[in-house]
Design a protein that fits this description.
5-stranded parallel sheet, Rossmann fold, Helicase, Ruva Protein, domain 3, two-component regulatory system, ATP binding, Acetoacetate metabolism regulatory protein AtoC, phosphoprotein, about 450 residues, alpha/beta, single chain, 4 domains
């Protein structure tokens, strides 16, 4: 991790000028102020990675500034500068949480060395945290329960993709666990110790979305009272997860495409761009190719996001995982149960779980298990403990094809079977035409033509 922005607080103008020029020449963004009060106002106005402050200053000394800065930004790295005769104050600042100090007079290279040491310490701290996570077995990929063929294939692809920076587009119905997969891609990557930042593109008002993603400068709009880092900068070095990407307004799709191509962020109202290093994972429950065809989603952005696409299977396509998932969630919610411990499921309850089609997917199953854990009174979950919609699930045996009565026409029979297959594929994929075309072994264009021909909606 490299520090970007440095705030210098020193009442000597010559010292401020020297450090500003030197650090800017070495790639830092620098702001210099003459006293502690001005420094505190700066810290309240925007975020800094590091403060380099003199110990002795008028109006608010370095020690008081340190204490106030820690309240506002606990992770801020603070380095003090002390002249001859103020070493005791510098040591007191170290005890209060400053990372290090440099003694005046000093050579600029000495300050640069201290900054590099602080950056290395931060990097090692993050690496240590990542290794502790790995040793504790806390990878979120382990929370993806199931050993069905679709899940085994998905997790194989996740492990293969995790180490590289390639942009990934996750598709699948709501509730299939897209954010869990995005976190697994992050946690199994070299970026695991750095931020994972999730953005729900459908939950943020369109007029605020650009500011949330890319930040803004003070005064950019009415409520912009201070500079603000965007979520893309917050994710620097790590992973940016763009959930519900299909909901992103068209005017922002252009700016997102530019960000993906150039890896630079320009805040709203800003005049300079800032380079960032992020791995982007996007997710959607929408049929993006259909949205492209309808003009609701930019084709160039779609292909830029869909460098590698991972489809998350709905729960009905991995029905063999239902018992294991149900037991997993039941164990999680066991503490909610007012009665004694739960041993599992009565046979009729398990049969009902396996017969239901779970349109809400894993999330719906999770909520059903929470309900069962709370309501069950005996050692086993009974069918009556399950939601009514689950108890009333019909037999999963697929119906036979219905052919037109009294016909021997191969042509008419073929059309009837073809229409029913298309309807079944669309129902099975939740209306995802791209996936339906794959199941039907048709081109996407051919499927659209046949949907129109047969008057199929959805």
């Amino acid at each position: 991790m490299a520090f970007r922005s440095v705030l210098i607080a020193d009442d000597e103008e010559s010292m401020r000028h020297l450090l500003t020029v030197f650090l800017r020449d070495h790639g830092y963004e620098v702001r210099a102020v003459a006293n502690g009060e001005e420094a505190l106002k700066e810290l309240q106005a925007r975020d800094y990675d590091l403060v380099l402050s003199d110990v002795r200053m008028p109006r608010l000394d370095g020690l008081a500034l340190l204490r106030e800065a820690q309240r506002a930004q606990p992770e801020l790295t603070f380095i003090v500068m002390s002249a001859y005769g103020s070493h005791d104050a510098a040591l007191e600042a170290m005890k209060a949480g400053a990372y290090d100090y440099v003694s005046k007079p000093f050579k600029p290279d000495e300050v640069l060395l201290v900054l590099k040491k602080a950056e290395e310490r931060q990097r090692l701290w993050r690496e240590n945290r990542r290794l502790r996570t790995e040793l504790a077995g806390e990878y979120r990929v382990e929370s993806l329960v199931g050993d069905s063929a679709p899940m085994a294939d998905l997790l194989k692809q996740v492990r293969k993709l995790a180490p590289v920076k390639t942009t990934v587009l996750l598709t699948g119905e709501s509730g299939t666990g897209k954010e869990l997969i995005a976190r697994a891609l992050h946690d199994l990557s070299p970026r695991a110790a750095l931020p994972f930042v999730a953005v729900n593109c459908g939950a943020i008002p369109a007029e605020l979305m650009e500011s949330e993603l890319f930040g803004h400068v003070k005064g950019a709009f009415t409520d912009a009272a201070r500079d603000k880092k965007g979520l893309a900068v917050e994710a620097d070095g790590g992973t940016l997860f763009l959930d519900e990407i299909g909901e992103l307004p068209l005017q922002l799709q252009v700016k997102l495409l530019r960000f993906l191509q150039e890896e630079e962020v320009r805040p709203v109202g800003g005049t300079r761009s800032e380079r960032v290093d992020v791995r982007v994972v996007a997710a959607t429950a929408r049929d993006l190719p259909a949205a492209v065809q309808a003009g609701r989603f930019r084709e160039d952005l779609y292909y830029r996001l869909d460098v590698v696409g991972l489809r998350l299977p709905p729960l009905r396509e991995r029905a063999g995982d239902i018992p294991a998932l149900a037991r997993h969630f039941l164990a999680r919610f066991a503490s909610l149960r007012p009665a004694g411990p739960l041993e599992g499921f009565a046979p009729e309850a398990l049969a009902a779980l396996e017969a239901y089609r779970w349109p809400g997917n894993v999330r719906e199953l999770e909520h059903a298990m929470e309900r069962a854990a709370v309501l069950s009174e005996g050692p086993l979950v009974r069918e009556d403990d399950l939601p009514e919609v689950v108890r009333g699930a019909p037999d999963r045996t697929p119906p036979a094809f219905e052919l037109p009565e009294a016909t021997l026409s191969v042509k008419r029979a073929t059309r009837a079977v073809e229409e029913q297959l298309i309807r079944k594929a669309l129902a099975q994929t939740g209306g995802n035409r791209t996936r339906a075309a794959e199941l039907l072994e048709l081109s996407y264009r051919a499927l659209l033509y046949k949907i129109k021909e047969y008057g199929i909606s959805g």
